[in-house]
Amino acid sequence: MSKVCDLTGTRPMYGNNVSHSNRKTRRRFNPNLQKKMFFIPETGEWVELKVTAKALRTIDKLGLNAFLKKLNSK
After folding, report:
1. What's this model's pTM, rounded to 2 decimal places?
2. What are phi and psi of 61, to 5 degrees?
């Protein structure tokens, strides 16, 4: 299963674990992905998407259509 947001395209970031002795080993920061069902009133269909928690908060604030318009304008 890919760790990519279906709407924003957010992918994992990479960085270092830094120990107490300042030794560095590579690690991965995964996005906070959630599977969510969205209703599209124009088509009358339900769609399941994997979206980040940040995208979910923005969709709750603006609505799905306004969020998609905002993404398309960028």
Report:
1. 0.83
2. -75, -50
Q: Which two tokens stand for residue 41?
A: 């009133």
Chain segment 33-63, per-residue pLDDT in tens: 999 999 988 899 999 999 999 999 999 999 9
* Spans of all domains in the chain: 13-73
Confidence at residue 35, expressed as pLDDT on a 0 to 100 scale: 96
| Third-level CATH fold of 13-73 | Ribosomal Protein L24e; Chain: T; (2.30.170)
Query: 34 is written with which tokens?
Result: 């959630």
Q: Are 12 and 2 in contact (CB under 8 A)?
A: no
